[in-house]
Amino acid sequence: MTVKLKRGARIVGFYAALTAGLVIFLLPVLWMVSTSFMRRADVLSSPVKLLPPVWRPQNYREIFLDFNLGHYFLNSIFVTGSIVVLNVLFCSMVGYSLAKFDFPGKKLVFGFILSTIMVPFAAILIPLYLIIREFDWVNTYQALIVPFSMSGLGIFLMRQFMFSIPDDYIDAARVDGATEFGIFFRIVLPLCGPALSTLAILTFVTYWDEFLWPLVVTTTDDYRPLTVGLAKFLEQYQTQWNLLMAGAVVAALPVVLLFLVLQRKFFQAMGGLSGLK
Q1: Contact 52, 38 (CB under 8 A)
Q2: pTM
Q3: Is residue 199 a contact partner of residue 88, using CB atoms and an 8 Å limit?
Q4: Are 117 and 159 in contact (CB under 8 A)?
Q5: Tally of CA atoms within 13 A in the half-sphere of 252 that contains its CB
Q6: What is the spatial distance between Cα 237 and Cα 241, in angstroms, rounded to a whole number?
Q7: Which parts of the chain are beta strand (E)?
Q8: Contact 113/158 with Cβ under 8 angstroms?
Q9: If you compute the radius of gyration of the chain from its CA atoms, what whole number of angstroms results?
Q10: Rounded average pLDDT per 10-residue block, the chain, 277 residues
């Protein structure tokens, strides 16, 4: 009986700790959402209010009409969506070649790709900007998209997942006369759904939240994404935290929706990754 009581106490303590951690994690998010519906006078009132005394959904209308948040939002959708599509295409191609082909220097190439993951972006920021300037791409969509059209982490993810695809499928297709591009697009890619979903989620989250590079290479609002737009909003409306929180909710919503839609395939890919080969 004592053993059962101790076991029950450990289980209760474990779930209590998880619940406390969940509350600590969610409290800032809930406060952000709540503040986005508050009046300006209620945000910094004392004592702090967790729920709006008066709900004000007009905050969302104001940030889109008065601040033109929709323009920044569409820029972010276009830039991040383009980066996701290019990463899914190019990383899967490189991963396929590294997983299913033998050629001289393959391990060296893969080692070089892995080494790029360890290089902080701050170390290449200035050289990358000089290259972009030489191409006359400053303040263009190309500057925001092309440098991030492929990633070492994405190549690693696709390579590791493609080891789980049986070689018999590929050999049978070659015997039937299929081209390598036909094999890749008609056989390999459809089998990589979980890995592609995972790569799409990771890429979207990474570059949807990117701030430093767009701040450096954009000079007008025509090309600025949502992250830079919100920073400008803070400069322009420094004390209107209710409107700023409304903009933050709008910025966070696409990431949450994307994960909810693709979460099952995300966890499938995490479970399907094999060890290094």
Answers
A1: yes
A2: 0.84
A3: yes
A4: no
A5: 12
A6: 8
A7: none
A8: no
A9: 24
A10: 71 86 86 88 79 88 85 94 96 93 90 90 92 94 95 92 89 88 91 88 90 93 90 69 87 85 68 52
